[in-house]
Amino acid sequence: MTETTTPLRTIKSFVIRAGRMTHGQKQAIETGWKDFGLELEQGLLDYRQIYKRTAPVTLEIGFGMGQSLCTMAEQAPEQDFIGIEVHKPGVGALITILQDKQLNNVRVFNCDAIEALNNCIADNSLDRLLLFFPDPWHKKRHHKRRIVQPEFAQLVRSKLKVGGVFHMATDWQPYAEHMLEVMCAAEGYKNLATDNTYVPRPEERPKTKFETRGERLGHGVWDLKFQRIA
Fold it and tell me: Catalytic site residue 135?
């Protein structure tokens, strides 16, 4: 009897959503990818070669349309940033802003974040990793698809320098509670909240229009910061 095996499913860091690219977004990718784009095929990144300097490096997973990432990069020109986004309209929107503002401290992947982390980000190389408003997968049967899981926490830990920070934010309280449970159980981390729960909204995280609108409707936002200590 021949034994058959089923390949393990890979957790993706995103859910595919339909979205049309505008002419401007397409043009931004065509003209700006050579300056701002990163490819999985490049393998492990040499930050000094990419940015022509040595500086703290922050990576953001799922930057949406890029406004927050660009704001952070503009407000911290002494730092370098990497954004990962699977949806091309967002990539095009980000590159449009980078071109308009002539920002040179941001680079972007258009791929799944797990693949980029595994193939292109060296261990012990990041000062911060940001995960703002990831898909909460509301239905209980979909909770296993949430990106913040024990295995992911350890992948992030391996990429952070000792002392580096994993900063998460969500506007969905059950997901905040899930993140807190996963991270408090994760080896090698320290919760930076004084009460071991959530931190106040950090000034360095730009407030989005979506978040401002949610606040007016009485919606909360929960920020979590965990530091790699080992």
Answer: yes
Residues paired with 32 in a beta bridge: none
Give the whole-angstrom CA distance, residue 171 versus residue 161.
28
CB within 8 A of 116, min separation 6: which ones?
Answer: 38, 40, 84, 109
3-state secondary structure of 168: strand
Q: Residue range 82-98: average pLDDT?
A: 97
Query: Is residue 149 scored above 70 in pLDDT?
Result: yes
Among 90, 34, 93, 98, CA closest to 70: 98
Q: Check residue 218 and report its DSSP letter.
A: T
**Of the listed 80, 112, 135, 223, which one is catalytic?**
135
Is pLDDT at 18 greater than 70 in this prediction?
no
- Give the tens place of pLDDT for each residue, 47-72: 999 999 999 999 999 999 999 999 99
Q: Is the separation of the CB atoms in 108 and 83 below 8 Å?
A: yes
C-beta of residue 115 within 8 angstroms of C-beta of residue 126: no
The rounded Cα 41 to chain-centroid distance in angstroms is 20
Other CB atoms within 10 A of residue 41 CB: 7
- Please compute, for residue 166, the number of CA atoms within 13 A of its CA located in the half-sphere on the CB side: 26
Residue 19: which pLDDT band, with cuts at 50, 70 and 90? low
**2-26: b or e for each residue (b if 16 or more CB lie within 10 Å)?**
eeeeeeeeeeebbeeeeeebeeebe
